[in-house]
């Protein structure tokens, strides 16, 4: 991994870097919603879907009111209010502004009002939602190098509606704002102005999980490189994929990757992991709601 020494990611445990390189790889996924008709459309509400191996992203643009209902939802799911002009009600809980809402399993109704963007994160156990993904056909066969999904331990005090402020101060360096639940970890990074300094990229890899990068504003180039193995038939070309908001990119393991903001205006990308990342969770103070959601016990 290549991080600047001032970036605390340079102190992440290095054990994973010695993992053996697999022989077969899956490709990346780039779903640019502006190129697609909405999967669901009503007055003032348009929704698109994209998926990874374990998760589905629902992206909604809203001007008015929309309700998201779930019946017999098998596990926790996440609703992100990405704009301060939005408010939401779930049961007897009401929130406003940029907020992460964790909705417990079972039956639920989330009603969102205002103008802005809503991101829902569900595991592929919600098969009705997974089937709506624009790239669902890509996952007809299981993607390589990703273990079977297993949720993290139940939250302290049991399942209930939990909400987290996405306007709180992030970490200093890296400027992350990390929350987790039993199914997801969300890194709600702040928007940035202008292009990324090309002399300060951060190429790195993950050995056994996908990274989902959701571009909410601006333009990015996702740089992705796969390992060379002894079997040339399994080699893949490098990618330098330009995406424009709103978009979802799923980066497969164990590819080397980094994302470069290129718009002269506002660029905003958030990262999602399903299940939560163990390495980030192991860093003291990184996960803001760690007291609510215990990490699995080490074997």
Automatic annotation (TrEMBL):
SUPFAM superfamilies referenced in this protein's UniProt entry, alphabetically: RmlC-like cupins
Domain of life according to the entry: Bacteria
Renumbered residue ranges of the record's region Disordered: 1-30
Gene3D superfamilies reported in the protein's UniProt record: Jelly Rolls
Residue ranges, compositional bias (Low complexity): 11-22
InterPro entries referenced in this protein's UniProt entry, alphabetically: RmlC-like_jellyroll, RmlC_Cupin_sf
Descriptive protein name: 5-deoxy-glucuronate isomerase
UniProt source species: Paractinoplanes pyxinae
């Amino acid at each position: 991994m290549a991080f600047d020494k001032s970036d605390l990611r340079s102190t992440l445990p290095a054990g994973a870097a010695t993992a053996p390189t697999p022989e077969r790889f899956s490709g990346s996924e780039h779903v640019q919603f502006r190129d697609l008709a909405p999967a669901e459309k009503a007055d003032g509400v348009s929704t698109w879907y994209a998926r990874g191996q374990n998760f589905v992203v629902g992206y909604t643009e809203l001007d008015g009111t929309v309700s998201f209902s779930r019946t017999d939802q098998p596990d926790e799911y996440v609703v992100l209010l990405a704009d301060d002009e939005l408010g939401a009600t779930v049961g007897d809980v009401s929130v406003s502004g940029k907020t992460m809402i964790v909705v417990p399993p079972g039956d639920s109704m989330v009603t969102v009002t205002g103008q802005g963007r809503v991101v829902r994160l569900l595991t592929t156990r919600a098969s009705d939602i997974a089937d709506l993904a624009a790239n669902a056909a890509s996952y007809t066969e299981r993607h390589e190098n990703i273990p079977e999904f297993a949720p993290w331990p139940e939250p302290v005090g049991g399942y209930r509606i939990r909400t987290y402020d996405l306007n709180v101060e992030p970490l200093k360096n890296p400027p992350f704002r990390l929350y987790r639940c039993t199914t997801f970890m969300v890194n709600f990074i702040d928007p940035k102005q202008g292009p990324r300094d090309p002399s300060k990229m951060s190429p790195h890899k993950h050995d056994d999980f996908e990274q989902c990068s959701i571009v909410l504003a601006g333009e990015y180039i996702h740089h992705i490189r796969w390992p060379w193995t002894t079997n040339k038939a399994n080699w893949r070309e490098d990618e330098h994929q330009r995406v424009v908001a709103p978009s979802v990119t799923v980066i497969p393991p164990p590819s080397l990757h980094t994302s470069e903001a290129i718009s002269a205006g506002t660029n905003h990308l958030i990262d999602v992991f399903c299940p939560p990342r163990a390495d980030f969770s192991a860093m003291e103070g990184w996960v803001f709601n760690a007291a609510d959601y215990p990490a699995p016990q080490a074997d």
